[in-house]
Please model this.
Amino acid sequence: MKYFYGEYEGEEFPTPDKLFGFDQLMDFIMQYGEQALKAIEQMMKDQSNEQQSDLLEQLIKEGLLDKDGKGKLRLTPKGIGRMQRRALMEVFSNLRQGNREGHEKVTPGQGGERIEGTKPYQYGDPVSELDLHQTIHNALTRHGLPEKSQVANRKSQIKFDEHDFELHLHEGTTSCSTVVLLDMSGSMMRYGRFLAAKKVAMAMQSLVRSRFPQDSIDFVGFYSGATRIPEVLLPLTMPKPVTIYDYQVRLKVPIDKIDKAPQHFTNLHMGLQLARRILRRRQSENKQLFIITDGQPTAHVEGDNVFLLYPPDQRSTLATLKEAVLAVREGCRVSTFALIEDYWGMDWVGFVDQLTKLTKGVAFYTNSSELASCVMESYLSGRKKKTYIA
Model:
């Protein structure tokens, strides 16, 4: 073994709690989900490593981890919040520079930061936002200087009318409801795709909560079926394992028994149906759907049945496209994020092209490492609503 000696720079040596702290546990849990929590439980029971066990107990005392009535380890809201904030910092540290964070709805009056420029007063505008300098200038220009008062001890008055009033311009607020559809099919385990998507999802939760509290964001996972993903379960969500390796699959399963069928197919059709139901209950000015996927649909709904079809069948494609068009007719903007690390599977990109053309949406052909930038920038631009005032 070779040794290198150098001058001590005064940096603190890492302690065990820094080498094995909550942030490291977060990465472990994000990557392996429920299996990670089970492994951590075993570490706590392992008496041979008291140091790690003590550190885990300390995290429980700090309220980052907890145990249920059966002694099963779980994440607390405080722990999930810290995971979200860390994910947000990680995502924004990698965002390309020059992208403006926020919206650009320009309106008079209160509701955002004051920006340069004014506009004439209109009935109903808040008089509290009058630009006094410009208003006085208008009055003097139109009506001239005030005449000298003939009455003793009485000051001259400037004449005003409603045409003289000018208001400051403000950057107004606009609300946005977003549903992120996460592909949970078996192939999403490859190339760290689902881990990247999950980090983006948690970062978006933190962003909405801290910067855009008037917005709403929901997550829907789609596989052979589709389900809404609660915030508390998002860090533990994992893609479905592949259980069938046949070259051809043609299965018809009743919807109420879909949980007993192979789970690793791609039922974007059912995911869109659920997303539409969620957005119908939202009253936001803007509504958008984000689809994160690595393949074309291999499942769809017909009546009371789900069809699981591999290789991909045109019936699944048409059913999914029709559902997306219905979402657009209800006022939704559709963005698709196609993960394309394995270029040998590019045939399915034709589906993304069709989806984008029919919905007049946008598509991003990206890989897992670039997903965060694409999703965040699209979210921020998608909630912009520009209004130009003459």
User: Anything to note?
Assistant: The two ends are 75 Å apart (CA to CA). The longest helix spans residues 193-211. DSSP finds eleven helices and 14 strands in the chain.
